[in-house]
Amino acid sequence: MSTPPLLRLYPARFRRAFGDEIAESYHEAVEGAGRAARLREAGDIAAHALRMRLHLGSAQRGGRLFAAAAPFASAATAAYTAFDLVSLIGDRYASGNPDFLVPLSYAMGGCALVALMGAVLALGGRFAAGTRCAFAGVLAWAVILLAVTLPAGAPLPWEFAAFVLAPVLVAAVPLACPPDLRPPGRVRSKAGPAALLLWAPLAVVVLALADADGLGSVILWRLGVPTAAALALAGRPALAGLRTAGQCALAGAPFVAMGYCAGVVDQDTLLPALAALAAGAAALHLWRRRGRDSGAATPN
Predict the structure, then answer these.
(1) What are the pLDDT digits (tens) for 200-250?
(2) 3-state secondary structure (DSSP) of residue 216
(3) Which of 106, 152, 196, 213 would you label with 63, given CA atoms 20 to 30 Å apart?
(4) What is the DSSP letter of 56?
């Protein structure tokens, strides 16, 4: 049996220990399969090798860290893309004109809608497909924004770079989650994903019209309501997965980043927000540790 060249992507120690097993599983999976199946299996091996190189396996601390933060990053992506759509629809409804160039506003709105659908699907239980869809939508949104706002050859200001790259990095966090540590689905029925795909855009439209009618005229309204809805969709299992201070901090960081991009957090409040995030993460970690210690000390 030949050894797949992709095994060379693994660290040498891991390849010596598990290379034969991986090669055997690969040959069993692709035996008699078509080109698409072979490409899919090769992609899985390459992704697994990359995770092992980056110490993001399910048995490693990095993998568990990103697994705990994954649902919160998806929730932050859903909240920010909903904010972007609410702002676009609300401003157009109020003024009769979009706040951006007309053709590109539709293109960016379409990318934001794709990302919103993907993030909602990821939170609802279709994690792999949803996170890839969300990342693709956010990446396309960023590319369009860069293409239309920066002249050719112009330097990229760091403030604008943070505004563009932060949503992309947040959307990429769930992609680092190991497959066997993916969060459980909140929606069990087969009709659930279809209902979520219908509910998300309708909720955005309702929120945008309410905002344009004066029920919520501040940016915090546009971002706060989608954030609360996304966290509710993530549910208690996501919170229960936070066990260390690092996991708590990484889970909260996407919301600080999205708040910065939305204008809720600015340069004056960024450091206090990060300090509050660190303090909250440490407090939650100590509270959980105290609960474990008291439970262990309780006699049977």
Answers:
(1) 767 776 666 665 555 444 566 677 777 787 878 777 777 777 777 778 888
(2) coil
(3) 196
(4) -
Q: Is 284 exposed, middle or buried (0-12, 13-18, 19+ CB in 10 A)?
A: buried
Sign of CA pseudo-dihedral 219, 220, 226, 230 = positive
d(CA 124, CA 196): 8
Inform me whether the pLDDT recorded for 101 exceeds 60.
no
Secondary structure class of 115 (helix, strand, coil) = helix
- pLDDT greater than 90 at residue 38: no
- Which residue is listed with tokens 């693709």? 136
**Two structure tokens written together for 213:** 């009618």
- 188: pLDDT strictly greater than 70: no
CB atoms closer than 10 angstroms to residue 231: 19
Q: What letter represents residue 180's amino acid?
A: D
Angle between helices 12-30 and 35-53 (to 10 degrees): 160
Structure-token match 């996501």, residue found: 238
User: Quick check: pTM over 0.90?
Assistant: no
291: Cα within 13 Å, side-chain hemisphere:
7
Q: What's the confidence (pLDDT) of residue 1?
A: 46
3-state secondary structure of 241: coil
Rounded (5°) CA angle 253-133-220: 40
What are the backbone angles phi and psi of residue 225, rounded to the nearest 5°?
-65, -50
pLDDT (0 to 100) of residue 137? 95
Burial class (CB in 10 A: 0-12, 13-18, 19+), 5: exposed
- Spatial distance between the Cα atoms of 56 and 65, rounded to a whole number of angstroms: 9
Model pLDDT, residue 215: 47
Q: Is the Cβ–Cβ distance between 71 and 234 less than 8 Å?
A: yes
Residue with tokens 């497959």: 179
